[in-house]
Amino acid sequence: MESSRPLRIAIVNDYELVVAGVAAVLGDYEDRVQIVELDASMPVISDVDIVLYDSYGQAQGELIDVNSLMTNVSAQLVVFTWNTQPDLVEGALRAGADGYISKGVSGVELVEALERVNAGERITPSTTTMPDGDAFGRWPGDDLGLSPRESEVLALICQGMSNQDISRQIYIGINTVKTYIRSLYQKLKVSSRTQAVLWGVDHGFRPDRSRQIV
Questions:
Q1: How many structural domains is the chain composed of?
Q2: Are 39 and 100 contained in the same domain?
Q3: Where are any strands of DSSP class E within the chain?
Q4: What is the CATH number of the domain that holds 27?
Q5: Can you give the pLDDT at residue 116?
Q6: 171 within domain boundaries
Q7: Is residue 145 helix, strand or coil?
Q8: pTM here?
């Protein structure tokens, strides 16, 4: 029997723009999902059915701190990510996630997947493709020409991570990290890591801390 009310959703990520971007897409499906809370670097406190964890610039796989995300709520946790490698999926599920959804989906596909998780299914990606063009939602620097991956690499640089740290965090090879950094420098018209960080701080790449109850 289908529920008579929309799913109650909290969206979490360290960046307000990322959270708001996902919420904006889901806003087209108000008859099926209700956005209750938006959190940047804060735990969920509202009574919700699902906590949607956007992995942009965040810990992934078995490193996801499910307990801190879910301290105050009894809900299902769904990871929403560009990284769909099988061992990351398995690690997240072992850490306590109830579902794992690729950002390659459309808005309606995301809603359908969330409904299936709420009904008790364990949803995982059917592909390991990582979109890097016309991707879901928003990210810092998207209006300035940065791709999702370039943006995420810059966000992690601004968090003080080394190239090796970034490689481990977002599960790409070290040479791929260096390629993104070269591309970033060209787009930002900078020539050093310090200059890139200064640019990032001025353009929304510093993690936020906020909670919005909708």
A1: 2
A2: yes
A3: 7-12, 33-40, 50-54, 76-81, 99-102, 210-213
A4: 3.40.50.2300
A5: 97
A6: yes
A7: coil
A8: 0.91
Q: State the distance between the two ends of the chain, measured CA to CA, in whole angstroms.
A: 28
In this predicted structure, the answer to whether residue 184 has a pLDDT above a threshold of 90 is yes
Question: How far does Cα 207 stand from its chain's mean position?
Answer: 13
Three-class SS of 147-171: CHHHHHHHHHHHCCCCHHHHHHHHC
**Confidence category of residue 133, pLDDT binned at 50, 70, 90:** very low
Whether 122 contacts 93, CB under 8 Å: yes
Reported residue count of the chain is 214
Domain of 181, CATH number, reads 1.10.10.10
pLDDT digits (tens, 9 = 90+) for 142-169: 999 999 999 999 999 999 999 999 999 9
Query: Is the four-CA dihedral 65, 34, 22, 89 of positive or negative sign?
Result: positive
Over residues 23-40, the pLDDT tens digits come to 999 999 999 999 999 999
Sequence-distant (6+) residues with CB within 8 A of 192 are none
> What are the E-state strand segments in 20-133?
33-40, 50-54, 76-81, 99-102
> DSSP character for 189?
T
Range of 125's domain?
7-129+209-213
Q: Are residues 151 and 56 in the same domain?
A: no
CA distance 137 to 34: 17
If asked whether residues 70 and 111 sit together in one domain, one would say yes
Please list, in sequence order, all residues whose beta carbon lies within 8 angstroms of the beta carbon of residue 168, skipping any fewer than 6 positions away: none
